[in-house]
Amino acid sequence: MSTGTFESLTNKILIGIAGAEPPFECQGDYKPYSRANNAGKCGILKKQAAFVSMLPNDKYLREERKKFLEMLGKSGHWDFERFMHGEAEKVNAKFLAEKYFLARYNTEKGYKELEKDQARVEENKKKRIRMTDRILRPYLNQYQPPEERILISQNITFNELDPIPVYCDMTAKLEDLVIPKTLAFDYTDCNFVNRELEPELVEAVEMSLDPRNHIKCECDGKNILCYENEDCPCYKMNKDMQALRSVNNTEPPCEFNCGFACSDACGCKGRCYNNALLLPHRFLFPLEIFRSDSVIGFQVMCPVFIPAGTPILEFNGEILELGTLNKLGPLYNEHIAYSLQCSFSDDTDFRNFFNQLNFADEYKEVLTNLYRKKEFWIDPMNFGNVGRMISHSCCPNLEVLRVYRKSLSPAHVSLVMVAIEDIYPRTPFSFDYGPKYKIDSKRSLQNYCRCGLFSCQGKGNQNEEFKKLDTFNMALIIQKLHKMRRDAYERNVKRKD
Ligand SMILES: C[S@@+](CC[C@H](N)C(=O)[O-])C[C@H]1O[C@@H](n2cnc3c(N)ncnc32)[C@H](O)[C@@H]1O
Question: What torsion, rounded to 10 degrees, do the Cα atoms 374, 380, 381, 387 define?
Fold first, then answer.
């Protein structure tokens, strides 16, 4: 592995050579770990793995909640336990039902089917399916780990501000523990671009430093609040970009798709509600990585409640063009299975959008080239963060939001994972890997999916009725599941030991 340094050109966009020191204060044995190759890393993890005894599940969750609320009390007055109720819950269930419905299809066919389905709502209402608590209980989707777990790493991030433990719940004896090589990567909490591999992208980042080519506001974040100020250039840009929405209709529709956030270059320093990265960059949520199924592999969950609409974490890695990924040869499939696309070559709307802005002509030209015939991906395979462990689901609880800061090159994109429903403690995080993944991936998840949720399209879901549900009945099931989870949570929270 090569070593080198990173130059921080703009906040959280690093240009450098893979293998450099991470941009945070790392603790513990980061250096020997990062210098080891894949097999060496697995060896280090295997050596340090040990059984640990946990508190009984309910008690553990109550303790975590208490700690979390105390921590929030110190840093602000957020009301983090706003559950979805009433009309808001109905609207959310309808939105989720449409998403799950579309997850059945690989292509635009889904949209046509959705239109037909919407036309049949009245008819569908007459065909309500029977769903008792007993039928729905297997789909509550809350993982209950054993009280004895193998702790593989106390903190895979090596950053004490963002501690994330890794557990394996599959093995009875330490000698039998296998550390899959997918766990052997270097942790990064920001995206970076390799100057040698992506010179054009680096050129764009350098040009974006010219004041004509970046966007920032002068709001002070106290008397003038960005999200209340119609003239805030960042907020205006955010609204315009949200209006662009989904690209070329192959992705399911989503509330959040594209946006623009305030940053450290602004008067508000990005400490405002027009910054979807505000919470993710505070590493607010106590996350945990666990492995309980050898097929799905590692997954991510949180021991505290997260309300719908919360931006939880950023997906980090190396920004690479598809052509560069193609040059990986036999490793291509592995990398692409972990990577997320952050720019689209067929995005004419986006090209028209930035060409109308007041950027310098040369910069617009560079941007146009970067968004024509090229697509950039964030590849977390060698350098990544906890986002790379999030699994696919046909009923996901996260949505990926594409947020730009400072300027509009593909290197200015952050992929933010936002909760699209209330997420109860120890529910595995998931998002829909999307139609492309289903087609490209070696083991198409269309057949293979093990998310195990009620509308899962995988072979494991034997409930054919649930697989074919219309959106009306799906929405009813979603509401009922939400209520069951909420009731169980409230019972647990109120219980005294
Ligand atoms: C981005 S990785 C997720 C992290 C991975 N689980 C690990 O252990 O490194 C994607 C891979 O996880 C597995 N996976 C994710 N979601 C799955 C699902 N719903 N069913 C089966 N396998 C899944 C598949 O092997 C997939 O190629």
Answer: -130
SS3 151: strand
Angle of the 471-494 helix axis to the 109-119 helix axis, nearest 10: 90
| Residue whose CB lies within 8 A of the most ligand 1 atoms, among 427, 445, 456, 457, for a mutation test | 445
Atom of ligand 1 nearest to the CA of 390: 3
Q: Residue 136: CB within 6 Å of ligand 1?
A: no
Of all atoms in ligand 1, which is nearest to the CA of residue 338?
A: 1
Question: CATH for 6-494?
Answer: 2.170.270.10
Residue (of 114, 120, 122, 87) closest to 98 by Cα position: 114
Greater pLDDT, 5 or 130: 130
C-alpha of residue 220 to centroid of ligand 1, in Å? 43
Look at ligand 1, atom 3, and give the residue with the nearest C-alpha: 389
**Closest residue CA from atom 15 of ligand 1:** 391
Answer yes or no: is pLDDT of 10 > 80: no
182 CB under 6 A from ligand 1? yes
60: which residues sit within 8 A by CB, 6+ positions away? 54, 303
Q: Six-digit token pair at 209?
A: 């430093």
pLDDT at 109: 82
Return the pLDDT at 441.
Answer: 54
Spatial contact of 471 and 410, defined as CB atoms under 8 Å apart = no
Q: Are 176 and 351 in contact (CB under 8 A)?
A: no
The ipTM (two decimal places) reads 0.99
Strands 391-392 and 430-431: parallel
Ligand 1 atom 25: residue of nearest CA:
296
Question: Is the beta carbon of 431 within 6 A of some atom in ligand 1?
Answer: no
d(CA 67, CA 196): 45
- Determine the residue of 296, 300, 400 to mutate for testing ligand 1's pocket, defined as the one with the most ligand atoms within 8 A of the Cβ atom: 296
> What is the average per-residue pLDDT within 221-247?
83
> For 380, how many CA atoms within 13 A lie in the half-sphere containing its CB?
24
Atom of ligand 1 nearest to the CA of 456: 19
Least confident of 44-58, 398-412, 454-468: 454-468
Ligand 1 close to Cβ of residue 456 (< 6 A): no
β-pairing, 398-405 vs 258-261, is parallel
What are the boundaries of each domain within the chain? 6-494
Q: Taking all residues of the chain, what is their mean pLDDT, rounded to a whole number? A: 88
- Nearest atom of ligand 1 to the alpha carbon of 180: 8
In this structure, are strands 50-53 and 148-153 parallel, antiparallel, or unpaired?
A: antiparallel
